[in-house]
Amino acid sequence: MQDCENMQQPGDAHHRMLIYKEASIRGAWIWWFICTLLSLLHGVISETSRALDIMTKYPLIDGHNDLAVPLRRHHKNKLSKLSMLDIPNAATDIRRLTAGHVGGQVFAAYVLCTAQDKDAVRLTLEQIDVIRRMCTENPQMELVTTAEGMGNSTKIACLISIEGGHSIDSSLPALRMFYLLGVRSMALTHNCNTPWAETSSSLYSDYQQRNDSLTDFGKAVVSEMNRLGMLVDLSHSSWETAKAVLKHSTAPVIFSHSSAYAICENTRNVPDDILLLLKKNGGLIMVNFYSSFVACSSDANVSILADHFDHIKQVIGAESIGIGADYDGAHGFPKGLEDVSKYPVLIEELISRNWTEEELAGVLRLNFLKVFRKVEKVRDDMLHILPSEVEISLSEVNENCRAKLVPPGKPSLSVLEVHQSSRGNGNTPLRPVKALICFILLLITVTLN
Ligand SMILES: *[C@@H]1O[C@H](CO)[C@@H](O)[C@H](O)[C@H]1NC(C)=O
Ligand SMILES: *[C@@H]1O[C@H](CO)[C@@H](O)[C@H](O)[C@H]1NC(C)=O
Ligand SMILES: *[C@@H]1O[C@H](CO)[C@@H](O)[C@H](O)[C@H]1NC(C)=O
Ligand SMILES: *[C@@H]1O[C@H](CO)[C@@H](O)[C@H](O)[C@H]1NC(C)=O
Ligand SMILES: [Zn+2]
Questions:
Q1: Mean pLDDT by 10 residues, the chain (449 residues)
Q2: Within 283-366, where are the H helices?
Q3: Which CATH superfamily is domain 49-381 in?
C-alpha cells in the first residue's frame, strides 16, 4: 500500500495547489477515502487468504457433527437415494466439507434419550452402520480408527463417536463391541441421566443420581474406555459428573462440543474451574457454535464466538482448544457460520485477533491429534489388563424391558436364574401386560424416529 501513503500527502503538486487549491483538497480527500477503503479491503482479503492458507496446511478436525441425525430423520438412512455431495435438509455434505477445509470429522451415532431402556442399542448400531456406509462408499471420505490414520488421511477422515451412555445399556461388553465397530469416543450422557452418570440437562427425570454423579459402575465405564483407548467425552455431562470423571480418568478427556460458561451462562458450557481441571488432565475443549450456547440467544455472530476462544485461551491456553461446531445437531448458528463450508470465517476472525499460525494449527487439528495419541498411549500401557467383567447391579437399572433369560414354561435353574434368585426377586416371568407395554413403547419410539 505504498502508493496510498504518497497519495495522502500530495506534496509534489505543491505549486499547482495554489491554483487548484479547492479542487486539490477535495481530490486529496477522495484519494484518502479510496485508499482507506482499499487498505481495509486489503486487510480483509489478506486475512481471508491467510485463513485459507493455514487451513490448507492444517485441515480442520471437528469434534462433533450430527449429520447422521438428518440422514435418519429426513432420508431414513437410505443412502442409495442420496448424493453425499449435496444433501438437502442438512448443514453437512461432501461439497461443503471440502469448501470448509475439513480434513477430519467425528461423526456422532446419536439416538434419542427416549430410546433408553428400549431399543437404544439397535438404533445406535443402525447409526453406526449409516456412518460407516457414508464413509466407505464415497471416495472423498475415509473411515479411520487411529490418531495416525486421522493425521495422515488425505481425504475427509471419519471417526465414529457415540453421543450418550444410554447407547451401551449399562453393559461393558456392549461398549467393547462398539469399539470393535470403530467407535473411538463416547459422551457419557446426552440429555438424560444414565443409571451411572448425570446429565447437564433437566429435560428428562429418569435415574436421579447418587454418589457424586459417577457411580461405581460409571467409574468402571471410564476405566474400560481408558483401557480400550476410547476418548471420554464430557459434553452433556453435569459439572459434578465432569469433575468426578476428571478425577478418575487416567487418560485425557474431551468436551467434544461445549463452549465457555463465562461468556454464555448455559449449563452445557464449561465453567473456568473445570477448564483448569481439564488443563491439568491434558484434555481438550472443542468449542460449540450453536447460537444458544455461544450468545445465550438465537442472535449470535462470529465476534462473540471468537470471544469464547479468546476467553478459554486466556484461562488455559490455546493448546487446550479445538473446534466441535455441532452442525446438524442444533438449529440456529451465528450469522455467516450457517454450515460446514463456513469455518474459514472463524479462522479469519481469530487471525484479526492476533492468533498465531502455531495456535491456529493446534486449534484446527494438532491439539486433537495430540490428545487422541495420548489416549492410545494410555491404552498401550494397559495392554496387560484384561477386559472388565464388572456388571451393573440389577437394582440400579430399569428392568421392565429386560428379558428374563428363562425358557418358556417351567423355569429351570439357569445361571441367570441362580444369579437373580440370589437377589431374591428374580423369579417373576415377564408378564404379558408388561410385554405388551414394552412392545407399544417400542412402536412409538420407532415411529417418532
Ligand atoms: C503419519 O504416518 C507416519 C508414518 O506411518 C507417522 O510417523 C506420522 O506420525 C503420522 N502422522 C500423524 C499426524 O499421525
Ligand atoms: C456409592 O459409594 C459408596 C462408597 O464409596 C459405595 O460403597 C457404593 O457402592 C456406591 N454406590 C454406587 C451405586 O456406586
Ligand atoms: C456481534 O454481536 C454483538 C452482540 O451480541 C454486537 O455487540 C457486535 O457488534 C456484533 N458484531 C458484529 C461484527 O456484527
Ligand atoms: C494485534 O496486534 C497489533 C500489533 O501488535 C495491535 O496493534 C493490535 O491491537 C492487536 N489486536 C488485538 C485484537 O489484540
Ligand atoms: Zn450434543
A1: 36 44 64 71 76 98 98 96 94 98 98 94 98 98 98 98 97 98 98 94 76 88 98 97 98 98 98 98 98 97 98 98 98 97 98 98 98 98 98 87 75 48 41 62 61
A2: 291-294, 302-316, 343-352, 357-361
A3: Metal-dependent hydrolases (3.20.20.140)
Question: Which DSSP state fits 324?
Answer: -
Phi-psi region of 249 (alpha: psi -120 to 50; beta: other; left: phi over 0): beta
Question: How far apart are the C-alpha atoms of 374 and 147, rounded to whole Å?
Answer: 9
- C-alpha 300 – ligand 3 centre gap (Å): 8
For residue 15, give the 3-state DSSP assignment. Answer: helix
Distance CA 6, CA 100 (A): 39
Indicate the pairing of strand 156-163 with strand 321-323.
unpaired
**Residue 178 in contact with residue 162, Cβ under 8 Å?**
yes
236 catalytic? Reply is yes
Nearest residue to 358 via CA among 316, 318, 305, 324:
318
* From 62, 117, 119, 163, active-site residue: 163
Here the cell at position 27 is 481530490
Catalytic residue among 62, 66, 328, 348: 66
| Ligand 2 and 170: CB distance under 6 A | no
Active-site annotation holder among 101, 257, 308, 311: 257
Q: Is 448 exposed, middle or buried (0-12, 13-18, 19+ CB in 10 A)?
A: exposed
Of 208, 211, 241, 390, best ligand 2 pocket probe by most atoms within 8 Å of the beta carbon: 211
CA–CA dist 294, 345 (Å, integer): 16
Q: Is 353 in the pocket of ligand 4 (CB under 6 A)?
A: yes
Are 150 and 221 spatial neighbours (Cβ–Cβ below 8 Å)?
no
DSSP bridge partners of 231: 185
Q: What is the DSSP letter of 318?
A: G
The SS3 call for residue 134 is helix
- Is the CB of residue 215 below 6 angstroms from any atom belonging to ligand 2? yes
Report CA(416)–ligand 1 centroid distance (Å): 48
Q: How far apart are CA 353 and CA 347, in angstroms?
A: 10
